[in-house]
């Protein structure tokens, strides 16, 4: 789990998010405690708490006094929307910008994506109608 390039508390938050997105941690289910996370990942409990508090700040987790942290209603959809937006920003927008630079139109890009998903690799034919 440890990625030396990113803070541990961010990685802890992402692990919990991944569990919510993949459904292994359901909405309204109790989230792992900071003590459990600290023991499992062999980190300082304050570091685990910082990751959990990030999720509280995002509205993904909420505290029930005396019981612990729970996954908020709507947390999965919130995280999916956040990830879709990040995906578009990191991958789709740069892909389309590069496609325009080399003369490929939206249909050309869609054809390349479909071919890639099917496991084939056709040659792209520039769409001369797209500036």
TrEMBL record:
InterPro entries: Tscrpt_reg_HTH_GntR (IPR000524), WH-like_DNA-bd_sf (IPR036388), WH_DNA-bd_sf (IPR036390)
Residue ranges constituting the HTH gntR-type domain according to the UniProt record: 6-74
Pfam family, one: GntR
Keywords: DNA-binding, Transcription, Transcription regulation
Xref: Gene3D superfamilies: Winged helix-like DNA-binding domain superfamily/Winged helix DNA-binding domain
GO terms assigned for molecular function: DNA binding; DNA-binding transcription factor activity
Protein name from the UniProt record: GntR family transcriptional regulator
Source species of the chain: Kocuria rosea subsp. polaris
């Amino acid at each position: 789990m440890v990625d030396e390039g990113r803070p541990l508390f961010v990685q802890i938050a992402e692990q919990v998010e991944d569990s919510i997105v993949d459904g292994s941690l359901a909405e309204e289910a109790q989230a792992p405690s900071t003590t459990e996370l600290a023991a499992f990942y062999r980190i300082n409990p304050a570091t685990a708490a910082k990751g959990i508090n990030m999720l509280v700040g995002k509205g993904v987790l909420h505290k029930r006094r005396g019981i612990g942290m729970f996954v908020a209603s709507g947390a999965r959809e919130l995280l999916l929307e956040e990830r879709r937006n990040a995906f578009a920003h990191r991958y789709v927008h740069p892909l389309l910008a590069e496609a325009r630079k080399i003369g490929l139109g939206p249909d050309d890009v869609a054809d390349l994506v479909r071919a890639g998903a099917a496991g084939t690799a056709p040659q792209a034919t520039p769409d001369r109608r797209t500036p």
